[in-house]
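Illustration 12: ABC transporter permease.
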Amino acid sequence: LGWIILTRTTLGRAIYAVGGNREAARISGISFVRTKIMAYTIMGLLAGVAGIVLTGRLNSANALMAGGAELQSIAAVVIGGTNLFGGEGGVIGSVIGAFIMGTLGNLPKKMFSATLRLGMRLNS
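Figure caption equivalent — predicted structure in token form:
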């Protein structure tokens, strides 16, 4: 859905244009302020939805329950190929970066639990 919005709608193309070169976007008639307000509004709405989903998943609400998730999100997007300075990147690369981060996060747990089980078997 995010890929369709960013590549097929006027707002998505405006977001890419403003992120790539704000001055060129202004000269071509794209309102920087309007695009920025719309982007922040959509991101705020999506953050609220994510908070509701996380609250439902954990059956509790705490302002600090997703602490540190923002850094992992930024790392996943950068691993996916998005430029931190704007104008480059895409949704598919960000999803691939998230999969890589998830795999790297779970790999030590799997390796440690296998080592622990092997040690317990050898001790028995």
